[in-house]
What we know:
Elements: H1 3-8, E1 14-20, H2 26-40, H3 45-65, E2 70-79, E3 82-91, H4 113-120, E4 123-129, E5 132-143
Antiparallel strand pairs: 1-2, 2-3, 3-5, 4-5
Amino acid sequence: MTPAQLDAAPFGEVEHVFPLPHAPGAVSAVRRRIRTLLTDWNLAADFAEDVLLVVSELLTNAIVHALPPATLRLSRRQVERCRAVRVEVTDMGPVTPAGLSTSTHDPDEHGRGLGIVTTLAARCGVRVHSGGTSRWAELEFGRS
């Protein structure tokens, strides 16, 4: 199928689920798998890089600030009249109660991840539910 045929094909929702090992190096391993998937979806390279950046930020937050296990859900969907990729990371909630900081990280090197996500996403948010906490972002890439 050519790129033009792929673009003209019906755009149904497609979802992939990736468990996240709570270990150093997990984010880069998942990123490699996601890069392959985004290439298979025939997304523009610059848009795929934006998706990978959002994936990295949300996964890193789950490893650094939340309790395991964490799961990444990546889906391609139609949102209103736009095509979008949704990134959702679910974890078991914060390591410490809200408002208490255990971080000794240099603020010049950390703390900008959610700002990056907000800038790149058309929509994003947080949902607390019985299965944990989900942080999600939708990045739009085309009108239908």
